[in-house]
Every structure is written in C-alpha cells, then in structure tokens.
Amino acid sequence: xxxxxxxxxxxxxxxxxxxxxxxxxxxxxxxxxxxxxxxxxxxxxxxxxxxxxxxxxxxxxxxxxxxxxxxxxxxxxxxxxxxxxxxxxxxxxxxxxxxxxxxxxxxxxxxxxxxxxxxxxxxxxxxxxxxxxxxxxxxxxxxxxxxxxxxxxxxxxxxxxxxxxxxxxxxxxxxxxxxxxxxxxxxxxxxxxxxxxxxxxxxxxxxxxxxxxxxxxxxxxxxxxxxxxxxxxxxxxxxxxxxxxxxxxxxxxxxxxxxxxxxxxxxxxxxxxxxxxxxxxxxxxxxxxxxxxxxxxxxxxxxxxxxxxxxxxxxxxxxxxxxxxxxxxxxxxxxxxxxxxxxxxxxxxxxxxxxxxxxxxxxxx
Length: 365
Known about the structure:
This protein is an alpha+beta fold and 365 residues long.
C-alpha cells in the first residue's frame, strides 16, 4: 500500500507540474493571439488579459490527454533511471500492479475534469464568446432554449432585437410563430413584429404573413398596425453564428446538459451532437486511464536497454493517434453513421485493451 501511495504521489506531482507549465505556455500564446485580434479594435490590455484567462481553460481541457501522457512518461522514465522499477520487480510486484496507483489517479483526474472542470470551462467559454462578440461587433447575439420555445437576441449599432419562436427547423434557419421585439439604443421598445414564419437569408430575416405594431410613446399601436405578406428585417446573424450559440456542447455544463437535450428535442432541434458529447464526457476518465496504460507500455523498461527517446516518441504518437480516432468516432456519431454509445465508449475501451495487450506482451511475452 505504501508503494501505491508513493507512485500515486509521484504521478500527481508530475501531472500538476506539467499542467502548470502547459497552462502558462497556452496562456502566453493565446495572449499574443488575442492582442493581434483585438488591439486594433480599441480593446485595452486589461480586457485582453481577461479574454485570455477565459479562453485558456478550454484549451487546457482539450489537451488533458496529452498532459496525462507526458506525466506518465515523466514518472516511469524517472523510475527507470533510478532503478526503482527494477527494485519493484525484484520485490515480486509485476508491472501491472505498479500501474494501479497511476491509473486510479488518472481516473480521479478524469472524474474531477468531468464534474468540476467541465462546468468551469462551459462558463468561461460562454463568457469569452459573449465578450469577444461584443468587442467585434459592438453588440451580442445569443440563443436560449426553454419550455416556452426558443429565444434569440441580435444586436448592433441600431439597437437590440429579441426574437421568440415556438419552434424551428433543425438548424434554426426557419422560425415558426415568431415575434421580433426591437429596442432603440439606450431606450425602450420601438416596434413589435409578429409573423407566421421567418427564414434567415443573406443579410437578414424574410418574414411571411406579418403584422407590425409601432410602440412609440403617444402612438396608438393597434390603429397604426400594418399587415404585410412579406417583410424583411436586417440582421448580422448567420447560420454559423446561430449554430455556435446552441451547437457547441462544450459551452454547456455537463450537469445542465440532460435538461438542455430534452429542451432541444422539444423545440425541434437535433440533439444528437449534444448526446454524443455527453456520453464522451462520461467516458473521459476511462480514456485518460488508457493514456496512462499506453504511455507506460513504452516507458517501463530499464534505460540500459537504450531507445528511450524512440519509446517516448512512440508513446506520444500512439496517444495522438488514439485521440484522433476518438475525435473521428465522435464525428461519425454526430453525423448518425454509428450509434451514439458506440461512438463515445468504443475508443476508450479499445485503447485500454490495446495498452493491456502491449503491456502483457512486453512483460510476459
């Protein structure tokens, strides 16, 4: 048990050190990128640092498997160089038993990443999207989905417009039973528009079967209402920006994702992408554990045999390959080409079995 705690402590220290180093490196690179993007838009350096701190957790969360691989390599290379692995084997402990503690730590890290880091990343990435959009356009666009339908907000120099609809097609390019409520800059509502449908076209919304009410003070709204078979409302929104508003599962906390998926289904949207993401997040601890097993399969032998650099390179490349396969499987699952559970759980399970096979071949083969 003491030896397990020793390996666990060494692995956790390696992980924390590498996470801190990579966090600093990612933040520095992103700071340069944010400065290049926003310095010519009048955004001061303090706000740029704020954007960087909001963006960095998402990047670190994405490279978490790489951090696990590097931490495992650092652990077992140092143990091999100090001959501690040789002493462990001489004491009668097999290589698989030496991997119990690092694997458990990886599972714990994966559990914390899903339960704690995921909500943090969701909040920071959503805030980053809102701030960066406001700095670029001077207004914000956002979409929310609830039991009352969907709500969309578009902004610009002419003011804000709140859009509500009972339902839409799968990508929100056509809204049904829709209402547009326009607000003047720094003032109250100025116009209400109700339509049977609204289709997003080039440069704005094309409304069908429309009724328009002016909302200025002192004006009889109903008496001055206008009816149109077709009406055009300018907008800076695009399908890509709408999809980004509701189509990025990473911007939603995993604790809120099941309810959001139910609301997507109720509003008429496709929730397959979010379902795949949800299952992939649940499978993440297992995938991180597989990274430990993969990296250890190449780095547990003694350094006197040589080829340490090649083994480290092979471990990193195999880890990248498994990460690519996992991402590719998620894409297939999102496109409906393979079942959701198969897309989310097959890559980590296959990675664990592959690593165990390599370990058994190296130790007992």
